[in-house]
Amino acid sequence: MIKLGTLRRKDITRCVELEKRLFVGDDPWSARAFHSELDAGNYYLSAYDEDVLIGYAGLAVVGRPGDFEASVHTVGVDPAYQGQGIGTALLRGLLTRADELNAPVFLEVRTDNDRAVGLYERHGFTRIGLRKGYYQPSGADAYTMKREARAGQEVS
């Protein structure tokens, strides 16, 4: 049974392992990057199967009450567990937090990651821009996507 919870510092080593598998050819996050995200107070979720971390996702929020903006920083799921709704569950958890704050949500996603683009579009994100060479060192392009604030609305 998959359980969602708050990402803990003890999860970071496993996050780094997954990053290296998920983002081959680009610059996967280091332990230091994950620690910085948690130190900054960003909202991170974990997905566990029994006692093994199989996914994680993070959301940063900036601004003041009534004028917040959120940004999805990462969503990662162990390749062995992809296609089972875990990424969807993690994203919905992040969007629930953004909705509590009435914050629009932004993100970047590789233009060649059709599965992720589809996931985001199913959750109300639209493409608002293109960042050439965004991912390094591969030079892959990214779409910038946005989902409008949805305070009090049901997440589909």
From TrEMBL:
GO terms for molecular function: protein-N-terminal-alanine acetyltransferase activity. InterPro entries: AcTrfase_RimI/Ard1, Acyl_CoA_acyltransferase, GNAT_dom, MshD_Acetyltransferase. Pfam families: Acetyltransf_1. It comes from the Bacteria. Residues 2-150 form the N-acetyltransferase domain. This is Ribosomal-protein-alanine acetyltransferase. It comes from Amycolatopsis taiwanensis. The lineage of its organism: Bacteria, Bacillati, Actinomycetota, Actinomycetes, Pseudonocardiales. The gene is rimI.
